[in-house]
Amino acid sequence: TCVFCLTFQLACCCGTAACSLCCKCCPKIKQSTSTRFMYALYFILVTIICCVMMSTTVANEMKMHIPFYKQMCKGIQAGEMCEKLVGYSAVYKVCFGMACFFFLFFLFTIKINSSKSCRAYIHNGFWLVKLILLAAMCSGAFFIPDQDTFLNAWRYVGATGGFLFIAIQLILLVEFAHKWNKNWTAGANHKQMWNGLLALVTLTLYSVAVAALVLMALFYTRSEGCMYNKILIGVNGGLCLFVSLVAISPCVQNRQPHSGLLQSGVISCYVMYLTFSALSSKPPETILDENNQNITICVPEFSQGLHRDENLVTGLGTTILFGCILYSCLTSTTRASSEALRGIYATPETEVISCCFQFSLNLQKLSCFLSLTADAEEHIEERGGQTVIYDEKKGTVYSYAYFHFVFFLASLYVMMTVTHWFHYESAQIEKFFTGTWSIFWIKMVSCWVCVCLYLWTLIAPLCCPTREFSV
């Protein structure tokens, strides 16, 4: 049995077989899920390498504990102390290779509708060959001539891709808020229980948003100073109130009967989260106290104690952050998400059947990502280890090209995030959460873009009455 499983692992690495574990006790896995997790594994691997490259602690430990470190660095032409393999420039080059890898597969997989085509076989298999290709692309970036021009140009490409990745997530969030309210409202036509749940969830969302606003006002402001914080908390709180009033205004209700407070509650909570995240990412303000000593203001006192253990904060925070990025990548690459970005939506009857009983964004996204299509012809393959379900016999269950395009943008977003966006020269992974103005303003602008996107979905039917809008 072990030899049989290892044979299939070899076929997975060098052939078209789907990857799986050699443990029979593992639950069944679909081929489409296996493929996406393998690409995600490559993404995680390169992201970890980027974090290591930005760590001065790791660099110092390597100098101390690796014998003949200086000679090895000279041997691979990486500089006297391997300075070419660390810092923001090294991260730019590695992420350039990863971005090129996913962009190449984006072009390669355009218009694939059948999993039986040659291009689909390459997308779903040959994992060792693709790993070698990814390593070659990441390594090859270090030999690009005229490094300064390349780094300057690539920085703006990375910023553009990072902003586009954020925009896609915001569009899908707004689309989800509308769909959630529409589905639960449709469910209320069948059972009155959904009206009660709708009211309960809406009340909970607004309670969370108001509580967050009050807590930020208490901990991130003071009577003197903190002008930035006061203005931004007030502006963002006012925007949440404004979009809530617009959502239930008679003119919007006449054109969009499904518009309500649930959508604006979701947006308000997300705006409060982004506001909190932005305030936490802002460089600390200091003033002189009565003893002429510098004290930090406009941040909670308990957070100052937390930041003393930089390794713990950096390790835990970085893991959570990149876990969220990976989750966004996987849940944003379903066929439903790609169709939503193109303005294609399911019929109301289908929505009621499939989504009426989904309670949250995580459940909805995970069910879309993990669910089997009703009409897919499944073929189960026993191979001595984990059972593989071939769920794409009749056609692809997600857009291959869109999947790779999202990971291409995610590669650029990771590159900009790890190097502190436009404060790259002083960036270190150990100071990942100390705060910079570029990260602060990116989060604040993301907050305002989210509000504008949602507001446009409300007023667009009023501005263009002859055009059909569907959300």
Question: Can you give a write-up of this model?
Answer:
This protein has 471 residues and is mostly helical. Helix content is 66%, strand content 3%. The protein has helices at 2-14, 31-53, 56-65, 69-75, 88-108, 118-124, 127-140, 147-188, 193-219, 227-247, 250-255, 261-281, 301-306, 310-331, 335-341, 348-355, 361-370, 400-418, 437-463; strands at residues 29-30, 285-288, 294-297, 379-381, 388-390. The strands form two sheets. A three-stranded mixed beta sheet has the order 1-5-4. Strands 2-3 form a two-stranded antiparallel sheet. The longest helix is centred in the middle third of the chain and has 42 residues, at 147-188. The N and C termini lie far apart (51 Å).
Cα-to-Cα separation, first versus last residue: 51 Å
Shape: globular
User: Helical percent range?
Assistant: 55-70%
Mean pLDDT: 75
Arrangement of strands in the largest sheet:
1-5-4
Helix-strand category: mainly alpha
Written as H for each helix and E for each strand, in order along the chain, the element string is HEHHHHHHHHHHHEEHHHHHEEHH
Total E-strand runs: 5
What's this, in brief?
By secondary structure, the chain is mostly helical. The chain is about 65% helix and about 5% strand.
Strand and helix map with partners:
Blueprint: H1 2-14, E1 29-30, H2 31-53, H3 56-65, H4 69-75, H5 88-108, H6 118-124, H7 127-140, H8 147-188, H9 193-219, H10 227-247, H11 250-255, H12 261-281, E2 285-288, E3 294-297, H13 301-306, H14 310-331, H15 335-341, H16 348-355, H17 361-370, E4 379-381, E5 388-390, H18 400-418, H19 437-463
Parallel strand pairs: 1-5
Antiparallel strand pairs: 2-3, 4-5
